[in-house]
Amino acid sequence: MADLLNQPCTAAASDVFGAAFYRDILNTILIYNEHQFPYAGLGNQKLRHIDAWTVEMMQELNAENVHAYARIGGIKQLIYIQFLKEKFGNDYPAFEQEVVSFTGLSSMYEIALLFMNLEIAYQKAIKNDVPIVVIGNKDVKYPLLCRLDLVTDATVHCPGITYERLFTAPFLKLNDDHLYLIGTTDFDLITTKSWDYYLVKNRLFEKYLSKVNSVHVLKGIWGKEYIESFLSYRLLKSLETKGIRVLPSDDRTKPDVTLIVNEKDVFMIEVKSAALNNRITSAKDIDGFKDFIDKNVSGSSKGVAQLNRNIEFLAEYATSAYNLKTPISKLRIYPIIVYTDHHLSKQAVNDYVIANCPNLPQSTVNKFQSIENVTLIHLDFFLENILLLKKDRSLLRNLICDYHRYVRRTKKNYDNKERHKDFFSAMVSFETWSVGYNSVYQDNTTEIFSGLAKIYNLT
Predict the structure, then answer these.
(1) Axis-axis angle for helices 349-356, 286-293 (nearest 10)
(2) Which long-range contacts (CB under 8 A, 24 or more apart) does 291-299 make?
């Protein structure tokens, strides 16, 4: 493959390597699959959740949404800058000046512009059948990318250069002293989590966040103040209108967000910003991935367990705490986990959580008209589809009900016929299943930006 990349883009591989080249490539892939197949644990046995994760990790399908950055990545960067402006207040200009002086950026907005232009260049390259972006050493972006620690130098032997490194430094420096963009899949990761890590590592937050001495401390603060309060609650609060109420958490008995529609449908939402360590996916550590889910979503204390406690409180104090006049027996409850890590969009995660999470006491369940299974939904779903949700107050309920109905029906088909395709179809994530449903994920970027700009006061 290295020899292939060194050939002129106009040369056909068969002309350079002979007609057998494509056959050899296919054989290589088949041999690799045969080698990996025993480790996948498949065959005629009854399939399990871990089998779906094993297949995805074996094929390096790490659930990064390749469209996430292209559609709203730049918008999320602008939202984050607005958050910093509101967080730091009068100190923001001084903070921005320190970042500008250290990085060589002209402003904080240039980091967003940099990645958006690279994404555009990458898409153009694909359309021109040259799916690689080359940045010469005279390009103004060259030194900037190096200073931002986005370059993996392949010209020197360095034990620190690993496969994981390419996740956050996707610009490969070769012997010709050019940078080669190997893909934009991880741009969303880089412009969110990695950008914060860069700012913390270089002590650029130090004057303005005195308690932040590591990225782990920052994650804890930002998880509450940025992801939960600023990004999620403000977004969902924008749905509030006649017949729709949005309530914040009280940090004790109520979830992060409660959405009440027509005083009958109660969406209880817990927001999770925990991130999976990339060493788990690179090592194809299925147990590590399972532990991550158990710790943050399906275990005895967080995630669904939190929502269960909130639902039990609602059953006792619906009138006094939520000002609900509707009889409890008429309420329909929809527990939701909103997450930010794309790995939780893997197949079988939602079904695993339902199968392994703590159950509510039957006496509590019987008090309500219905309690739907917990639904895991990526935060990007709400960012991209907020305009649709504003237009149709029934959309979220219909999506959740139809999703679980589809999963139950398809799992039943698998139980009856034991076809592997039914199993994998039934293990689909809400995010993947919902694409195209009543125009979900169909708004163009301009419309999305227009809607989010009003919500977050973007200028």
Answers:
(1) 60
(2) 292/343, 293/344, 293/349, 293/352, 293/353, 294/356, 296/272, 297/272, 297/337, 297/339, 297/344, 297/353, 297/357, 297/376, 298/352, 298/353, 298/356, 298/357
Gap between the Cα atoms of 228 and 257, Å rounded: 9
Two tokens at 83?
Answer: 């958050």
Alpha carbon distance 60, 67 (integer Å): 17
pLDDT attached to residue 12: 59
Task: Give yes or no for a contact between 178 and 198, defined as CB atoms under 8 angstroms apart.
Answer: no
Q: Residue 333: in which H helix or E strand, if any? A: strand 332-339
Structure-token match 């917990």, residue found: 374
CB atoms within 10 A of CB 441: 16
Q: How far apart are CA 271 and CA 114, in angstroms?
A: 30
Beta bridge partners of 135: 179
Short-list 109, 396, 97, 113, CA closest to 244: 396
At 369 the three-state DSSP class reads coil
Continuous H helices in 59-108: 68, 74-88, 92-103
How confident is the model at residue 35, as a pLDDT? 63
Nearest to 408 by CA among 342, 364, 350, 327: 350
Q: Taking the chain, what is the end-to-end CA distance rounded to the nearest angstrom?
A: 46
pLDDT reported for residue 62:
55
Mode of pairing for the β-strands spanning 133-135 and 179-181? antiparallel
pLDDT in the model for residue 273: 94
Token pair 């219909």 in the structure block, residue: 398
- Under-50 pLDDT residues of the chain: 39-41, 63
- Phi-psi region at 271: left, alpha or beta (left = phi > 0; alpha = psi -120 to 50): beta
Handedness of CA 314, 320, 321, 322 (dihedral sign): positive
pTM score, whole prediction? 0.86
- The token duo for 214 is 């590591």
- Given a contact cutoff of 8 angstroms between Cβ atoms, the answer to whether 179 and 121 are in contact is no
Single out the residue of 150, 144, 208 nearest to residue 180, CA to CA. Answer: 150
pLDDT score of 112: 87
Closest CA to 347 of 418, 431, 417, 287: 431
Q: How many other C-beta atoms are found inside a 10 Å radius of the C-beta of residue 71?
A: 19
Contact status, residue 167 vs residue 150, Cβ threshold 8 Å? no
Which is it for strands 332-339 and 370-371: parallel, antiparallel or unpaired?
Answer: parallel
Query: Quick one: CA torsion of 123, 125, 128, 130, rounded to 10 degrees?
Result: -140
Taking only the tens place, the pLDDT of each residue in 156-179 is 766 555 666 777 788 989 889 999
